[in-house]
């Protein structure tokens, strides 16, 4: 028996399948021994969380990956986006080194969808569909799943995957559960320290004749983080016809404060074995305050490294407070009626972004600077005299003040009815239902542009930059000079009548109201034939879109009212075959419909002479036929190895383009807008392995390993007119925002008291923005990134835990290049962050 057991355990040492994406803090559950004198402690940490997630993945009818919170109701990372990046095929876009948007299988965030407790989350930002998941604190989340194949009963609005967020329920724990955490973090780049507090509580109660049939759960999180970054960028301003040579460069210093507040309150009622009802509520507020000092030059003639010449210089201050909120309310239930199961849900969610008082002030140099040059193409360093760093060299030229508010509201009603029955002796189910979704997105912007100050009685002495400076800028990439004070600039503007500076063009052109109504219905059948499960069905979606806004043509305003209606029939087929007790095959054919972003659909336009820029409300939605084939082998507790092939045949992807020289824009020098691409193909391989080595002798039995690697390749084709000859041109590109390689590696170790985790996240470079059809040298690419994080958690007692985290240990930077990796468009560095925390828990 011992030999057999040992052999079985060694058989578990193989490659595995799900992302080990996850790890969370260890917690204690104590039991009295039979003698009553010895305390038995069971760790609830990385392995327990992984095992629970893998069991959910294994049961799923879709290809999905899951992260579960551990016993202390915390995901293993700072926010939802950073937790998701540990999953197979998942990477994130970062903003100031914080995880923000989620990419799945190398595809851009706008091609995915996000749901909270089953209802779609609208996007706070004015131009996007992608939801910035850093708005959601990790403490409010019980589980996070990325569903990569869509069954007919699911919304068809994702190409990479649907990110499903589930919040805490009282039925996730037995009896009273609570946790309270405090944390302090230190930002190495700015030497700033920041606090964070969070907590969660749940309990069950007995109503009527029931026992523990009513549950209440609440969670709260607050943090206020101060940090910053240093930047040097060219914006892709390279003249490749002459060298290449650089046209301009800019230094930027960011000081940032981000405050997050989140609250969730959930109710569950299960009166009997046949019915359950729930109410899920969530509120999250994210306030981002940013001060950006900038100093730049524009060369009189483009220069190569080492050359010198004359240059105009400028200084700039941008200060703004941006407040994003998400509110989500979901009321639903389930009732068994004999062989029938009835499910219903009403959802309301509202996201908003409010920028109440943005300020952007520009100071021009009083004279040109001489003998100016630079060194390094990838990380330009300005070679310039001391006068560039002196306040008396600049005067106030223009100030733009703005305020804006965007709201995105989603109402939906969903009803599902399923009946279980036998078909020729096989278990079967027929399921049908529908969903009504009503979405409204609007943006209101007001802009005041202050310029020509001498015409308003201000003297040169009053406009001198020295009147607005405040100390030296702490800039890590070299000399910068004095910083600028927004308060002093506001004091100057306070003496002017702002109505005289209202910018009607900028204000009205950016305003819009877009409405998107989707009616959906589906029919789906599930059949179990021995070890084979077959799910086949059809989904129908009808979309009615309307956009209202304002355009300006050579100084005259025009109202815009565009409408578009389209429908889609979306068949789906899913197969799951049990090869053995622990091995299963999956195959799926599905269809997706991803609507263009709101920025691409925006109705406003500006036409000024022979230059034009405009959105395109008549863009067609992206359509994709998706094929998935894979195998999963489960390796006991917290272990799995998997491999999945996927292919996507895509039509109508959207990209930015210049239509000058074609059609009605034949006589224009610029006509920047968005168009549908001809077609695209994407295919890839997704590998994953996670393993708990509990069969090894101590101390190696505490070892955990998780890894995943996704390879993708895309071929996309775009077309346009050559502005010089008028000929139609075609160009092959990668899909925008698509990384070819995404990977994670995690090494963990835990015992009854200590939990350690070292994790690595890698994302290869990708095309960020397409330039003109004949100008691939100015395409913008984001360089590859590798982030290494470390965490340690130690249980001081069974209820009290000490934690330490170190993020970005390799001091990874953010780099965007133009055409070729040698040519800077943007370089930004952040430094590591360290955190120390204490958690009290009871469950």
Report on the structure:
- By secondary structure, the chain is mainly β.
- It has one domain (2-842): Maltoporin, Chain A (Beta Barrel), CATH 2.40.170.
- Helices cover 6% and strands 60% of the residues.
- The strands form five sheets. It has a 22-stranded antiparallel β-barrel. The protein has a five-stranded mixed sheet with strand order 3-8-9-6-7.
- The longest helix has 14 residues, at 46-59.
- The protein is globular and about 85 Å long.
- The two termini are 37 Å apart.
- Residues 1-43 have low confidence and may be disordered.
Any chance you could write out the topology, listing elements then pairs?
Elements lengths: L1 H10 L16 E5 L6 E5 L2 H14 L4 E5 L11 H5 L5 E6 L2 E7 L8 E4 L2 E2 L20 E7 L14 E6 L9 E11 L4 E14 L8 E20 L4 E2 L5 E28 L2 E29 L4 E30 L2 E26 L3 E7 L5 E3 L10 E30 L2 E25 L9 H4 L5 E4 L9 E3 L1 H8 L10 H6 L2 E18 L2 E22 L2 E25 L2 E12 L3 H4 L3 E4 L2 E4 L7 E13 L5 E12 L2 E5 L11 E7 L2 E14 L10 E19 L6 E6 L7 E10 L3 E10 L2 E4 L10 E3 L2 E11 L4 E8 L6 E5 L5 E6 L3 E10 L1
Subcellular location: Cell outer membrane
Protein name: TonB-dependent outer membrane receptor protein
Family: Belongs to the TonB-dependent receptor family.
